[in-house]
Amino acid sequence: MDRRPPRDAVELRVHGISGVTAERILDHPNVVRVAGDTHAGFFRPRPGSGVAGGATAGVAVEAYRWGSLTAGAAVRTASMLLLLPFMLSNLAIWLRPPGPDRWGLLSMLCRLLAGTLTATFVLAIVGVTLDLIGWQCVPYPGCRASRPYLAWLYALPSGPRLALLSVVPLLALRGVWVIGTRSARAFEGFGPSSAQPPTGGRTESLADAGFWHDEHTTGWLRQIHVALGLGTVNVALLAGASPGGFGVPGHVVLFGLAVGLLVFGVVLLALPVPASPAGARRFLRPLWVGTAGVSVLCLGSATLAGAAPSGSGKLPGYEGIAAGVVAVQGVLLVVLTVVTYARQRGAHSDERPFLRGLGTPIMAASAVSVGAAFTATLVYRLADALDHGDIPDPIRPNPPIVGPLEPPVAYWWAALAGLAALLIGAATTSGTLLLSRRRRRGLAARIIERDYPDVRAEDAHRLRLVQETIARARVTEELGPVLIAFLVIASLGLATVTFDVIGIGPAQLAARLGGQGGAAAVFAAYVTDAGVWVISLLVICLLILGFRAYRSPQSRRVVAILWDLGTFWPRTVHPLAPPCYAARAVPELAKRITGLAAHEPVVLSGHSHGSVLAAATILQLPPSVLARVSLLTYGSPLRRTYARLYPAYLGPQTLGDLGERIGWRWRNLWRDTDPIGGPIFPRAADTPPSGAGPAAGDVDIRLRDPRSLTIDPADTVPPPIERHWPYHTQAAYQVAVRELTERSR
To answer: Can you state the percent helix, strand and coil of the chain, rounding each to 5?
Structure first.
């Protein structure tokens, strides 16, 4: 029951990332939940215990805490680290340039690339089970020695052995599906927030009624991806098993059916999502019936195939399948880069596009790189363990008695490219920061001269500290070249696709180019090993962070920061990515505001990332509610980050539309020392803000930070440099709340 004392207005605070407590949001030690549940709820100070910190007279303060949606469950938070490549691939489409996505081409390319990531995940499990264990290790006495958990597999013929081990990637695929569906249950029951009917098909605006309602799209894509995963296992199993089960003709026909179903799934990924569930079932039913039938036949064929000589080397066909997936990813990245660049050049924008408009291919390349790092780490670390600590290569082969245990060539190139990306990325970052240091310090010096014209000699040290803080806060704007360099590195790495296809690794290429002696080949082998260890250590550190997130709430909040930023958008590309928490937060906020606004004006107050949730909520409110709603943002990355990264959805035009919807009852507090927040409508001298009307000039309120360099006579220390938090303790905050409340009556 909502026990609210009578007030003239309500200030509804929405926190930023990292899952802070309701007590901190309200700046009050005793709070009580008045709506919501343990995942996300609305809190107020306990009756009779005083008012919230920074409260304005006559205004009740309420807090919306949504952090548990991403950082609440330890198991969910830790397991989500495994879904990082899927999350990055889903994020790619939202960074596209402004303007309509003609023919859905960018969406199609991103969905196809996401499908290859699912295939990469399945191939990694296939590589460690069917290839390394079932084909390369078990037949060799030196490898299975002192390993009774593997020795019993030697009694099985190779066909039944591969059939039995193929169950492991199927279970892994099922586990990823369960993680996504179970973690999404906290968001169930929150459909479209607007009274308007949901729009059919794809949505292009945050104001569309069905924008956050992605269950239909996710369900369609999830079934296709699982079918693609099953098909990948079937093709790998048939490629490695002997054709003795159903005979050579039956084996060929079955292999053709498996490949045909994979092609059918790829075609469905390329098609737009059907508007109705009935239309989706027409395509999914034959896909699933065919895939299930072929999977049973594949397992039966491999079981009946009997023994086949393992020989030396990798599982037959596995090298080619892995190289084929890498080649497809390379082609898709090239096409995605070309299409995105052409689209951004044809779009009309008032501002210079961030990242040259190439945010989508950069994020897609990141997803592919992280997926390759995860895969290479899993395969190489297991090969290292099975091979008694010595991964062989063409320059340093193991004796036949031990077994080859050779991972695919594609993973050697991935390790080498990963090491190059780290070194060049670190060099680019250092160079960018050094080259921009003088410019950032010059800007900070001009701000200091304006804010503190008369400085005493004893305050010179503190003045330098403030100037350095302002200069460091401008680092965010300097990271563009680093990301562009990453895309260039990824593009250069595509040249290795040719070597993947023909099966030439780094050491073999160096041996051919280096001539006699083999020194170049040995050097290339050691450099590649270093790359394997570097990316392995990074992935292992990530897994350690996931383990700590399971046991430590503080570490869980650190992981949640990444997830708060990456899972804000709906899953319209990769259905196995972590669920979109805004699918609950935005409709829930809209519902609560609608109920409160029926009795009293509401000031929606959003800090940092909470201001993004607040903006998305206002875009979903009907006009009858907007008349009694105002917006207060502070430390907001809306323009500084989101409008630049997501210009098609939160660009200047969308922000201008947001102001129009609420009659420009909007105030934004920001500081020069804040590394995250900034003005919403920046403008040059004597020019109106871009992307909005004259009223936008009153939105931004700059706060001097610190308030003074000298020590107040009633204090013992100078005012602190507050940077990103807090804002509600300053008088300008209460003035803004009071003004917005009066304008909303």
So the answer is: 60, 5, 30
**Does residue 448 register a pLDDT over 80?**
yes
CB-count burial class (<10 Å; 0-12, 13-18, 19+) for 697: middle
Which neighbouring-strand residues pair with 43? 33, 63
Cα distance between the two ends of the chain? 26
The residue-averaged pLDDT of 720-732 equals 91
Identity of residue 325: V
Token pair for residue 479? 């990271």
Q: Please name the residue ranges forming H helices in 387-455.
A: 409-451
How buried is residue 575: exposed, middle or buried, by Cβ count under 10 Å (0-12/13-18/19+)?
A: buried
672 contact partners, CB below 8 Å, separation of at least 6: 444, 447, 470, 473, 702, 705
CB 628 within 8 A of CB 621: no
Task: Tell me the β-bridge partners of 669.
Answer: 634, 701
Lowest-confidence pick of 160-174, 677-691, 714-728: 677-691
DSSP, collapsed to helix, strand or coil, labels residue 21 as coil
Please choose, from the candidates 555, 563, 561, the residue with its C-alpha nearest in 3D space to the C-alpha of residue 581. Answer: 563
Residue 425: how many other CB atoms lie within 10 Å: 15
CA distance 539 to 545: 10
Tally DSSP H helices, then E strands, for the chain: 28, 8
Containing 602, the helix (H) or strand (E) segment is strand 602-607
| Closest CA relative to residue 589, chosen from 6, 9, 10, 120 | 10
SS3 at position 162: helix
- Closest listed residue to residue 71, CA positions, set 197, 183, 227: 183
Q: CB-based contacts of 535: which residues, under 8 Å, 6+ apart?
A: 373, 376, 377, 414, 415, 418, 419, 422
Q: Answer yes or no: is pLDDT of 396 > 70.
A: no
What is the distance between the alpha carbons of residues 409 and 90, in angstroms, rounded to a whole number?
Answer: 28
Q: What is the mean pLDDT of residues 302-310?
A: 70
Q: How far apart are CA 34 and CA 41, in angstroms?
A: 8
**What one-character DSSP code corresponds to residue 206?**
T
**Nearest-angstrom CA–CA distance, 626 and 194:** 12
Contact by Cβ (8 Å): 528, 506: yes
Which pair of tokens denotes residue 614? 């607040």
Single out the residue of 449, 587, 468 nearest to residue 66, CA to CA: 587
How many CB atoms within 10 Å of residue 479? 16
The pLDDT, as a whole number, for residue 265 is 94
Query: Is it the case that residue 333 has pLDDT exceeding 70?
Result: yes
